Amino acid sequence: MAWAVLVVSGVLETVWAIALDRSSGFSRVAPTVVFLVALALSMIGLGYALRTIPIGTGYAVWVGIGAVGTAVVGMVALGEPATVVRVICLVMIVAGVVGLKVFH
Asked: What transmembrane ranges does the database entry give (predicted)?
């Protein structure tokens, strides 16, 4: 259960990062509310998961999911460049996250 919560929390990290960008410095209400709710839920989930998953593994997996998710949304939906090198780097992050889970 802790791993499922950790994955959802990582996805919520992507949500709050995108909402933070879209809030235009907290000047837009809807993205600011999405940011605050997603941030709170993401942190609560991370805290729950870390009750059974070691901090080094849990935090690295959470950050990895959030970073890769945010970068993918940026490339797919926000027009950021999807270069070969960038995609390879994201694949390496995913490999690291999977390795942390497998060798936990």
From this structure: 33-50, 59-78, 84-103
Q: What span, in angstroms and rounded, lies between the C-alpha atoms of 3 and 52? A: 9
Q: Which helix (H) or strand (E) holds 52?
A: none
* Distance between CA atoms of residues 66 and 30, nearest Å: 21
Please provide residue 79's backbone torsions phi and psi, each rounded to the nearest 5 degrees: 75, 15
C-alpha neighbours within 13 Å on the C-beta side of residue 100: 20
Q: Enter the pTM of the model.
A: 0.90
Gyration radius (Cα) of the chain, Å: 14
Enumerate the domain spans of the chain. Answer: 2-102
Map tokens 């709170």 to a residue: 40
Structure tokens at 63: 């950050």
CA distance 6 to 56: 13
pLDDT in tens, 43-97: 999 999 999 999 999 999 999 999 999 999 999 999 999 999 999 999 999 999 9
